UniProtKB/TrEMBL annotation:
This is methanethiol S-methyltransferase. It is found in: Membrane. It catalyses: methanethiol + S-adenosyl-L-methionine = dimethyl sulfide + S-adenosyl-L-homocysteine + H(+). Signal peptide: none annotated. Its main location: membrane. The chain crosses the membrane at residues 7-33, 45-65, 86-103, 123-148, 194-213. Catalyzes the methylation of methanethiol (MeSH) to yield dimethylsulphide (DMS). It is an enzyme of class 2 (transferase). One of its GO terms (molecular function) is methyltransferase activity. Its EC number is 2.1.1.334.
């Protein structure tokens, strides 16, 4: 019974992620939703900056703190191990929903690209970013990242083995392809408002910090293998034409 409950919980968290991902895309691209990143202004610039920074900080703290091995060691005394990752996914969804719900737009235009071709290129990069996120996650292990593999192993009564270090596809050209994809979704827009710029700068700064902390953990976990990867594969800017296999 407990195995099935955990499995259903894990699947529900995964479905919540899919829904929030689609909503976050619509919010960021001003597509189909009434409340988007560039919706009409509802508060003073000062209040909007303060609230938005608090929302970005809240997301950053939740997303990074809950992913640290030391936090997980303590957390799994409360939340059972098989559903730890699903709970992380659920908490991340709630942090994003709070950000979307409480976001205060600042509509001053920072840049507005009028050339039709250039606008098309920027929209294409935006779409590539949103498609790249799930595709890149499939390159390492999509279902492990979103907690489904863990509840599946538990349902089958098997121990879930930790994933090996891998450098498939884009990972052989750049160490953080997922963060590169997210950066495209935040920055590729033909019309950049001040609120959207704050959002893009805040989340990019978060990813730069998160990559440093993540690399420290990966180095501690995989040792020489990861050190060699750091020596040969660039962090963000891909080196195409030269495929590194470790
Ligand atoms: C949200 S993903 C981000 C991965 C990476 N920073 C990126 O931008 O593509 C974070 C998880 O990926 C795992 N990870 C990162 N690089 C990996 C690799 N080369 N092989 C296996 N797992 C990796 C980390 O251990 C962490 O659990």
């Amino acid at each position: 019974m407990k195995r099935w409950m955990f499995f259903v919980y894990g699947i529900a968290c995964y479905l919540a992620f899919l829904a929030v991902y689609a909503w976050f895309c619509a919010f960021t691209g001003n597509l189909f939703v009434a409340k988007s990143i560039d919706a009409p202004v509802t508060s003073s610039v000062g209040a909007a900056v303060a609230v938005n920074l608090a929302l970005l900080l809240g997301f950053g703290v939740q997303h990074s703190l809950m992913a640290r091995p030391a936090f997980k060691r303590v957390w799994t005394r409360i939340v059972p191990q098989p559903i730890e990752r699903s709970t992380y996914v659920l908490a991340s969804c709630l942090a994003v929903v709070l950000l979307i719900w409480q976001w205060r737009p600042i509509d001053a235009v920072v840049w507005n690209v009028e050339n039709t071709t250039a606008r098309g290129v920027l929209w294409t990069l935006f779409a590539i970013g949103w498609l790249m996120v799930p595709v890149v996650s499939l390159m390492i292990n999509h279902f492990d990242l979103f907690g489904v593999r863990q509840v599946w192993c538990y349902l089958r009564g098997r121990e879930c083995q930790p994933l090996a270090f891998r450098t498939p596809w884009l990972y052989s050209h750049v160490r953080h392809p997922l963060y590169v994809a997210w950066a495209l979704t935040f920055w590729a827009t033909p019309t950049m408002t001040a609120g959207h710029l704050l959002f893009a700068i805040g989340l990019t700064a978060y990813m730069v910090a998160a990559a440093l902390v993540e690399e420290r953990d990966l180095l501690a976990h995989f040792g020489q293998q990861y050190a060699a990867y750091q020596q040969t594969v660039p962090r963000y800017i891909p080196k195409f034409g030269k495929r590194t296999s470790l």
